[in-house]
Amino acid sequence: MTLLEVDQLSVTYTPRDQPAVRAVRDVSFTISDGEFVGLLGESGCGKSTLGNALLRLLSPPARIIGGRVLFDGADLATLHTRQLRELRWTNLSTVFQSSMNSLNPVIRIREQFADTFAAHRVTDNVDTRAAELMELVSLDRRVLRAFPHELSGGMKQRVALALALALRPKLVLLDEPTTGLDVVVQRSILDRLAELRQELGFAVLFISHDLGTVLQMADRVLVMYAGEIVENRPAAELRSDPRHPYTRGLLGSYADPRQPEVRITSIPGRTPDLSVSHPGCLFAPRCPYAEDACTQTHPALLPDHGGLVRCLVAQADRLPTTPPGPLTGATVDPAFVATGGAEVASISPGIADAAGTSSAGAAGARSPNAGSGSLSAADTDEATGAGETAAILVVHDVHKRYTTRKGLRTNTVTAISGVSLALHRGRVTALVGQSGSGKTTIARLITGIERPTTGEVRFNGGGDGDGDPTRVDRLRGRALRDYRRHVQMVFQDPFAALNPTRTVAYALSRPLVNYGGLRGGAARDRAAELLESVGLFPAGQFLDKLPHQLSGGQRQRVVTARALAPDPAVLIADEPISMLDVSIRAEILELLADLVRTRRLAMLYITHDLLSARLLADEVLVLNRGELVESGPTAEVIGAPRNDYTKLLLDSIPRL
Amino acid sequence: MAYFARRFAFFLATLWAAVTLNFLIPRLQPGDPAEAIVSRIGGKGQAVDPAQLEAVRTMLGAPGGNLFEQYVRYLGAVFSGDFGVSYSYFPYSVTHMIGEALPWTLVLVGVTQILSFVIGTLLGTWAAYRRNTRVDSVITLGSTFVGTLPFFWIALLLIYVFAITLRWFPERGGYGGGSSPGWNWLFISDAFQHSVLPGLALLITGPIGWIIGMRNNMVQSLGEDHARLAVARGLPERRIAITYGARIAILPNVTGFAIALGSILGGTVLVETVFNYPGMGRLLLESVSNKDFPLMQAIFLFTTIGVLIANFLADILYGFLDPRVRKAENS
Ligand SMILES: Nc1ncnc2c1ncn2[C@@H]1O[C@H](COP(=O)(O)OP(=O)(O)OP(=O)(O)O)[C@@H](O)[C@H]1O
Ligand code: SF4
Ligand SMILES: [Mg+2]
Question: pTM, whole model, 2 decimals?
Answer without folding.
Answer: 0.77
